[in-house]
Design brief:
- With 703 residues, the chain is an alpha/beta fold.
- It is 41% helix and 17% strand.
- Helix 2 links the parallel strand 2 (40-42) and strand 3 (83-92).
- The radius of gyration is 29 Å and the shape is globular.
Length: 703
C-alpha cells in the first residue's frame, strides 16, 4: 500500500535570548513548511530561547518567556494542520529539562525531555539541565495556567514516549542521544516508530559533518525508517558557529540536506517518502523482526492527525523524493565559509560599523582578510538575490539609505572593512607591499603608517627613569632587553588598533566604530608564541582555532577559487614577526624562534587534547610516529621543549581573544580546554620518567 508523507526539517539562525526574533523565525519556518505541503515540521534544539543561553538557563525569566513564545505559537491558527516539534527549557517538579514540545492545532501532544546530556568539549548541559532517566515512562505535567487557557488542557504527557498518529508512529531523539552507544532510535524503531526526529544544536568543526551523516545513515540502514535531523546555524552569541546541514534520510539514503553554511536566517528542507517502503524494508529483515517482537513497549501520545495520504486519495503528480549525493566541503572551503558567516552574524547583531584588521603582510592576517572578503562576497550575493533581511542588515551597518545595494564584494568592503599596516624600522618593504596589494585587491579602506616615533617615545621614557638604554640581542643586548623591545612594538599595535577602530570611521564622516580582528592561529596559541595584549588581543579572531598548515592550504585555495594571484606573494614568504633588526645575515623566523615547526605543533596539539597525552605518553606515541625520522632522544627533547613553553605561556590563554571554534585541539581556556594557568614548568616527575624511558631504549639498542 502507498502511504506518501511530506516532512520538513529546518535550520534557523537563532540568537540567545532574542525571544521575538526567534519566534518570528520559528513561525516563518512553519509557514514555509506548510506551503511545501509538509505534515510534520521539526526545528533546532532549544530553538525558542536559543541554544547558547548558557547560565541564563538558570534564570526563571528564560523559562517563563519560553512559555510565552510557545503560547503565541499555540494561539496562531495559521499554524494549524501540521505537527510541530519545537524546543525549550521546562521546569518539572522543580527540575529543569531540555525538552521538545510537540504541538498540533493549538494543543500540546507531548513534552519529551532529553535523556542523555552533552557534557564534554564545548558543552556543559549538565550545568543547567537534568536528564530524564525513566526510559519509556511518562508522567502528567501540569501546564501553566495561561497555557492551559489557550489549549483547554490542564495537564499533558511528559516523558519518554512515542507519538501515535492515525497512520504512523514518530519517535524523538535529541542531538547527543544520536552519538551515544545505546541511541534511543534503536528501541523506538523496534517498537514501531517509523519516523525519528532529531533536533540538534551541533557546532561546526573542520571535517565533522561526515560523522553526523554517517551516524544517521547507519541508523536508518540498520533500523529502517525515516530520520529527520534539524540543526541551528549561525553565531548565537559566542565562539561557536552552528553549521546547519539539516537532513532527511530514509532506509539508509539521503533525500534532502540544507546548506552547511549560509547567511539566510531560515532554511526549510522537505522530502516526500512512501511509508510503505519503510514497512517493506523492515519486514524483509527477519532478524530485525525477531528483535521487534520482544521490544520494550513505549507509551503512546496520541495525535489526532494523519501524516500520510491514503491510497484512495492518491495523487499521481506527487512522487517520492529521489536520493541525493552528499557533497562534503574541503577544509579550505569550510574555512572560507564558516568563519565568514560567523563574522557577519556578529557584525550585524553587535550594531557596529565594520571590522578593523592590523594587516602585517604575513599569512595569518592575510587569512583573516580573506575570510572578511568571503563574508563580503556572500553578503553581496544575497543582496543581489533580493534577500530582504540581509539588505536591511547591510544598510544598517553601512549607514546607507533604503535604496542601497552593494554592487561587488570590493565595494562593500570599502564601507565595512578597514586595514592598517603598522610598520617600524624592523619591518620590510616586502611585507608593506604585500599588505597594500592585498588591500587594493579586496577593496578594504587601507592605512599605511610608521610608528617608530611612538616606539621611541616609550623607550625614551624608560631611559629617562632608569638611565639605562635597552638594546636588541643582535646589538649586544640581553634576552630580557630583546624581548621587552619586541613587546613594546607588539603592544603598541594593539593600542593603535583600538584607536583607529574608534576614530577612522569618524575621520571619514561615519558614525559607528569598528570591531577589531585578531590573527593568531591555534598553533601559536598552544605554544604561547605571541605577546600578551599585543594585536592578537582583539574583539574577535576568526582563525584562532585553525592550524597554520590548514591556513596555508586555505590561502592557496583562495588564490585559485577567488582568482587572487596576489596571494602567491604570501605563500612564498617566510613567517616572521619582524620585531628585531634584520640584515643580510639574519632574518627573524617564527619556526626558528619557537624551536619547533608548525607541523610539529599541530601534532603536539592533537596528542595533548584529542588523545589525552601528557609528556610521557606523548613521547611513547611519537616514537612510533616520528621514529623513522628522529632518534628517541631527539623526540624526547622536542616534547620537553614543547611542554616547557606550554607551561610558562599557558597564562596567556586566560586573556586570549574570542576565536571561532574550528579545531579539536583548540587550547581555548574559556570553556573548551579547561586547565591551570600556573604550572611547574620543570615537570620533574614527568621528565624523569621520559629520561628513564630513553635510557632503557638506548640501552636495549646497545645490547
Amino acid at each position: 500500500m502507498v502511504h506518501y508523507t511530506t516532512v520538513a526539517t529546518c535550520t534557523l539562525n537563532q540568537w540567545a535570548l532574542d525571544f521575538e526574533g526567534n519566534y518570528q523565525r520559528i513561525r516563518e519556518s512553519i509557514l514555509q513548511a506548510k506551503a511545501l505541503n509538509a505534515r510534520l515540521r521539526i526545528g533546532p534544539e532549544l530553538e525558542i530561547p536559543g541554544y547558547g543561553c548558557y547560565d541564563h538557563f538558570l534564570e526563571r525569566d528564560t523559562v517563563q518567556h519560553s512559555w510565552e513564545v510557545l503560547g503565541r505559537l499555540l494561539e496562531d491558527r495559521s499554524l494549524d494542520g501540521i505537527l510541530i516539534d519545537t524546543g525549550m527549557p521546562v521546569l518539572h517538579r522543580n527540575a529543569r529539562y531540555n525538552c521538545r514540545v510537540i504541538i498540533l492545532n493549538g494543543k500540546i501532544v507531548l513534552i519529551r525531555p532529553k535523556l542523555y546530556l552533552a557534557n564534554d568539549g564545548n558543552y556543559r548541559e549538565m550545568r543547567w539541565f537534568v536528564g530524564w532517566t525513566r526510559l519509556a515512562q511518562t508522567e502528567d505535567f501540569v501546564l501553566p495556567l495561561f497555557i492551559g487557557r489557550i489549549t483547554g488542557q490542564r495537564s499533558v504527557m511528559f516523558g519518554d514516549a512515542l507519538i501515535s498518529t492515525w497512520d504512523t508512529c514518530v519517535g524523538i531523539e535529541l542531538c547527543e542521544e544520536l552519538f551515544t552507544p545505546e541511541s534511543p532510535h534503536i528501541a523506538m524503531s523496534l517498537d514501531g516508530a517509523e519516523i525519528i526526529v532529531n533536533s540538534s544544536g551541533s557546532h561546526h568543526e573542520l571535517r565533522k559533518l561526515k560523522r553526523r551523516v554517517d551516524l544517521i545513515t547507519e541508523a536508518t540502514l540498520k533500523c529502517g525508517g525515516v530520520y529527520l535531523y534539524a540543526n541551528q546555524k549561525g553565531c548565537d552569541g559566542d565562539r561557536l558557529y552552528y553549521d546547519g546541514a539539516a537532513m532527511i534520510l530514509a532506509n539508509g539514503v539521503v533525500l534532502a540536506m540544507s546548506s552547511q553554511f549560509s547567511i539566510a536566517d531560515v532554511e526549510v528542507q522537505v522530502a516526500t517518502i512512501d511509508l510503505g517502503s519503510v514497512r517493506a524494508f523492515r519486514a524483509a529483515r527477519t532478524s530485525r523482526s525477531m528483535q521487534a517482537a520482544r521490544a520494550t513497549p513505549y507509551p503512546r501520545a496520541k495525535a489526532e492527525f494523519a501524516l500520510a495520504v491514503e491510497l484512495g486519495d492518491f495523487d499521481n503528480s506527487v512522487r517520492p523524493t529521489d536520493p541525493i549525493a552528499v557533497r562534503y566541503h574541503t577544509p579550505s572551503e569550510e574555512i572560507n565559509q564558516g568563519p565568514a558567516c560567523w563574522l557577519w552574524d556578529y557584525l550585524r547583531r553587535s550594531g557596529q560599523g565594520g571590522f578593523f584588521l592590523p594587516l602585517s603582510g604575513g599569512l595569518d592576517s592575510c587569512s583573516t582578510a580573506l575570510i572578511v572578503h568571503s563574508m563580503c562576497r556572500q553578503v553581496t550575493e544575497a543582496c543581489l538575490q533580493g534577500d530582504e533581511q540581509v539588505l536591511k542588515d547591510v544598510r544598517r551597518c553601512v549607514g546607507a539609505g533604503a535604496d542601497y545595494v552593494p554592487e561587488s564584494a570590493q565595494e562593500l568592503a570599502g564601507h565595512l572593512f578597514y586595514t592598517c599596516y603598522m610598520g617600524t624600522e624592523n619591518s620590510s618593504t616586502e611585507t608593506q607591499q604585500r599588505a597594500r596589494h592585498l588591500a587594493q585587491t579586496i577593496g578594504s579602506y587601507h592605512v599605511d603608517l610608521r610608528m617608530d616615533s611612538v616606539v621611541a617615545a616609550i623607550v625614551a621614557l624608560f631611559v629617562l627613569v632608569t638611565a639605562r638604554t635597552p638594546q636588541y640581542e643582535v646589538r649586544g643586548g640581553s634576552s630580557a632587553e630583546n624581548l621587552a623591545l619586541q613587546n613594546i612594538q607588539a603592544r603598541l599595535r594593539m593600542l593603535l588598533s583600538y584607536l583607529f577602530a574608534a576614530l577612522l570611521p569618524w575621520a571619514r564622516g561615519r558614525q559607528k566604530s569598528l570591531l577589531v580582528l585578531g590573527s593568531a592561529n591555534v598553533d601559536e596559541a598552544l605554544r604561547g608564541y605571541f605577546t600578551k595584549y599585543d594585536c592578537s588581543s582583539a574583539d574577535l579572531n576568526p582563525i584562532g582555532s585553525i592550524s597554520k598548515s590548514d591556513l596555508r592550504k586555505y590561502v592557496a585555495f583562495s588564490r585559485d577559487a577567488m582568482d587572487l594571484p596576489v596571494l602567491d606573494e604570501f605563500l612564498s614568504a617566510m613567517p616572521s614577526a619582524e620585531l628585531v633588526p634584520h640584515s643580510k645575515s639574519y632574518a627573524q623566523s617564527d619556526e626558528v624562534e619557537m624551536g619547533m615547526s608548525y607541523a610539529e605543533l599541530s601534532e603536539f596539539g592533537r596528542l595533548r587534547k584529542v588523545d589525552g597525552c601528557g609528556p610521557y605518553s606523548m613521547v611513547t606515541q611519537l616514537l612510533h610516529i616520528w621514529g623513522d625520522q628522529l632518534t628517541p632522544r631527539e623526540i624526547a627533547q622536542k616534547v620537553r621543549r614543547f611542554f616547557f613553553f606550554y607551561a610558562i605561556n599557558r597564562h596567556k590563554m586566560t586573556t586570549i581573544t574570542p576565536a571561532y571554534h574550528a579545531e579539536t585541539y583548540s587550547p581555548d581556556d574559556n570553556r573548551f580546554d579547561m586547565r591551570p594557568f600556573l604550572y611547574n614548568s620543570s615537570w620533574t616527575w614527568q621528565f624523569q620518567a621520559i629520561d628513564a624511558l630513553i635510557e632503557r631504549i638506548e640501552s636495549a639498542k646497545d645490547h
